[in-house]
Each structure stands twice: as C-alpha cells, then as structure tokens.
Design a protein that fits this description.
- The protein has helices spanning 2-7, 9-15, 17-27, 44-51, 63-72, 107-117, 136-145, 163-172, 193-200, 204-210, 217-227; strands at 34-38, 55-60, 76-79, 92-98, 118-129, 175-183, 187-188, 229-230, 233-236, 240-247.
- By secondary structure, the chain is α/β, with parallel strands linked by helices.
- The strands form two sheets. A seven-stranded mixed β-sheet has the order 3-2-1-4-5-10-6, with helices on both faces. The chain has a three-stranded antiparallel β-sheet with strand order 7-9-8.
- α7 runs antiparallel to α11.
- It starts with a helix and ends with a strand.
Length: 250
C-alpha cells in the first residue's frame, strides 16, 4: 500500500479535494500556530497548514510516503506512529488528521497521546469516512467486482463512522465541544476509467473483493467507472464526517 500511496499520490489528493476544502477551512490554521498532521501521507495537508501560516509537522508510519513528502518539501516530516510517539507535551495548537485517525489499532491510547501533545484549549480536526453502507463508492466497487456475494467485514478505515462512538472516544481523551458535521461531496477516482481502475486496484477494499471475484472482475470495474465518468473525472458518491473538538482547558 505504501508504494501505491506514493505512485498515486496526486489521485489520492484529488480524490478528496472537495472534502479537503472544508477540512482546511475548519482547521483555520493561523500564522504562528504549531500544527501536527497525523497520517499525513505524502504531505498535502501538512503543506497547506504551513501555507496558512502554521509551523507544520507531518507524521506517517509509511517510510515511502514520508520520503516523498520530504522531496516535495514545504513542511517538516517524520516517520512516526502517532499512537505511541513521544511528542513533546503541550507542544501543538492544532492536531489534524485527514483520513488517518481511523487506522489506530488502539484509539483510546492514540487520542490520549494526541491530547498530551496539544496545548489546553487546542483544536482537533479530523476527516473520516462514515459507515460503509452509507458510501456509494463502496457499493460501486462491490457490485462490479463481486456481485451477488456478501461483503467482507468492514475495514479499519470505517472505524470512526459512528459519530456517537467517536464522541465517546474523544471525550474519554479529554476533548470537549465535539462536533460531527456531515459532508456529502463525491470522491474522484481519477480523470478517466483507466486511471480510476489502476488507482482502485491498490485499495484495501478492492483487494478484499477481488478474492471473491472472477476473471471478469477488473473489466466490470472499468465499465462501472465509465458509467460514472463526468467532465470532472470519475465521481462516486461519498459521505464523510468532519470532526472538530477542543482539548479541555486545565
């Protein structure tokens, strides 16, 4: 997945461009603020925080993604597991995570660690998928690759899809003013069906579904993407949560 994330970095960023505009506005990074970007991938959201005036530090567990982020520059980056990394205490004004926080194996420990890294009153801004059955893009993938088969268990990237569960996790880590705002913007899988297919074949959901598919799965997937071709690229329906919170003041 790391190599795929780097190879299709531009597609990954374009995929969620509409959601990212809302995410960036919600973060509202101000000049001089210290920003931690968790699960930063190749660093687009980190660089944008720096462009908005912050001192931005992006971390990801993928060495390949961080290597690419460093090549692109614009901020500071490190290979680190935000769940356990010993960040300096109360060092950041803002913690961001654009589709990264869902992957924590131990969410209570992870959010507690991020809370320790935030200054009292600091902001947390997350962008996460809603539950799988609320996302059209997954239905398109499933129906094309493995029609008439039961879907496998939902992957970790849907772990924060239930807003009640997310609020409980964050409250337990010391966050207040937790708000989950629904976004219904589509995602873009690429400018054309061929690119979309190449992009999709490296995704966790698609790799799972291919195990239940047949020799026509990939041609059917490309046909499905062709049916969703628009002037703006291959667009699929999506639902996400924009989660905002503040660390409780001492």
């Amino acid at each position: 997945m790391s190599e795929h994330r780097v190879r299709f970095a531009a597609v990954f960023d374009e995929e969620v461009r509409r959601q990212n505009e809302r995410f960036r506005a919600a973060a509202a990074v101000q000049p001089g603020e210290d920003v931690l970007d968790v699960g930063c991938g190749t660093g687009e959201s980190t660089r944008q925080a720096a462009e908005d005036g912050g001192t931005a530090f992006g971390v990801d567990i993928s060495a390949a993604a961080i290597a690419r982020a460093r090549e692109l520059g614009g901020a500071n980056f490190a290979v680190a597991d935000a769940q356990t990394h010993p960040f300096p205490a109360a060092a950041f004004d803002v913690v961001l995570s654009r589709f990264g926080a869902m992957f924590f194996p131990n969410p209570p420990a992870a959010f507690a660690n991020l809370a320790r890294a935030l200054r009292p009153g600091g902001r947390l801004v997350l962008l996460v998928w809603q539950e799988r059955d609320r996302n059209e893009w997954y239905s398109v993938l499933h129906d094309a690759i493995a029609p008439d088969t039961p879907a496998p268990p939902a992957g970790p990237h849907f772990s924060l899809g239930d807003p009640g569960h997310t609020r409980t996790l964050l409250a337990g880590a010391g966050f207040t003013e937790v708000r989950c705002t629904e976004l219904r913007d589509p995602v873009c899988y690429g400018p054309d069906p061929v690119t979309a297919c190449g992009f999709a074949l490296g995704l966790l959901d698609v790799r799972q579904l291919l195990a239940a598919g047949d020799e026509q799965a990939v041609p059917r997937l490309q046909e499905a993407f062709a049916a969703h071709q628009t002037a703006e690229g291959v667009l699929l329906g999506a639902r996400t949560w924009l989660v905002t919170a503040r660390l409780r003041r001492a």
